[in-house]
Amino acid sequence: MLGRDRRKRDKLMQAASALGAGGRLRFIATDLSSMTSISSAIDRIRDDVPRIDALVFCARHYRSERLVTPDGFEYTFALFYLSRFILGYALLDRLAAASRPVIVNVAGPGTGTGQIHWDDLGLANDYHGLTALSQGGQLNDLLGLEFARRFGGTGVRYVLVHPGIVDSGLSGDYDPQMTAHIAAMRITAQPVEHAVLPILDVIASPPDEPLTAIARGRRLDLTEFNGIHGPRLFNMTTKLLGHTVFADRDWYRRVSPA
């Protein structure tokens, strides 16, 4: 488990211990908006784990005010999109070593690409927290589409999942207006123990197809996804990462265009 919230770690440890699995859980304190922190986590995983059966991406955090990370990226772009791009490609060989590997990307598939600000991915000129999240979801759609196009032949399955509104804590730094909105959302949000069931099903029995998209329990028609922008986003992303700690990493050199 990668994350920064030690309270959640402690709760998960307690739950795992109650099932007799406490010794199997490892927590790596990681700021998933930080390139250096992600890099350190990847090094630890690669040192300790020869094979990965499933990667599950869930991290997101709402910010009413725009924040730029020390790496120079808008926070939501770094946390919600870049971290998932990096971890999926950096650990591809560990996934490919498993018999039925799967990446589960919990975002919001099927909303198109109209929220992507191609000339301003960091939203420096037009920031709103909801805009950042909407863009992040659409970037993750393209991430899944392009990953499957490039590496579907490795046997790694990519599943985009939107479980609906979940009362997972709804992590964020909210202004008063959004605080009221979140309080209203919690009234109808489903509990985590229900929302995770389809994700657990995917992990237990990955689909045969290289890419699958599921929204609120329903499989989406992939012909509705416009993957034409996938290569464009991939190239933009690798170019951005070329100015980070990952520039000299083997995985980056393998996937980065010459």
Automatic annotation (TrEMBL):
UniProt keywords, alphabetically: Oxidoreductase
Annotated SUPFAM superfamilies: NAD(P)-binding Rossmann-fold domains
Top-level taxon in the UniProt lineage: Bacteria
Extent of the signal sequence: none
Gene Ontology MF terms in the entry: oxidoreductase activity
UniProt cross-references to Gene3D superfamilies, sorted A to Z: NAD(P)-binding Rossmann-like Domain
Short name of one Pfam family: adh_short
Protein name: SDR family NAD(P)-dependent oxidoreductase
Native organism: Nocardia camponoti
